[in-house]
Amino acid sequence: MFEKGYQGHDGALLYQPMVHIPLIIRMPRQQEGRVLAVNAEQIDIAPTLLDVLGLKIPPWMEGESLKKAMEQLPVRSKPKFSMSVDVFGNGGGFRAGSIAVSHEQYKLVLHLNKKERELFDLSNDPGEQLNLVHTKREEAGFLESMIRERISFLRPSKDDMDRYFPGRETYP
User: Fold this and answer.
1) Three-state SS for 111?
2) Cα(161)–Cα(89) distance, rounded to whole angstroms?
3) Partner residues linked to 15 by β-bridges
4) What pTM was estimated for this model as a whole?
5) Domains of the chain
């Protein structure tokens, strides 16, 4: 992360060197390795293993199976999210941090405490050097709406906060 002026492997930076971690799966009787051009999240591991074993994937599981991609069949991947946030701010919101979404060739990083956005075309700029947020406004807006929807889904209600922090009027 030296190219972004940051040293270390923790913090709110969600650039590719921090979030692009290879997922390595070796199947029984597999003789050679393959590199797949599919993004995955940790929540994709369980559905993939269940699918490979021929077991039903429960409908409540958020992840998606990567089995078709592993079989080199065409797949349309879901948007993938990365988060590094202070989860519960006063009233249940996020205090600070970053949330990113990658979908198709684009990736948007939303810096919550700075109220800044960065949009990258990972196909043409894998090093994330050129921020396209002002030139690709439609793509940036679409990806930001995905993040905002995810934030509203993750935001706990006041009842949840009262359950987690009984007797408090403000929350950490």
Assistant:
1) strand
2) 10
3) none
4) 0.73
5) 80-164 (3.30.1120.10)
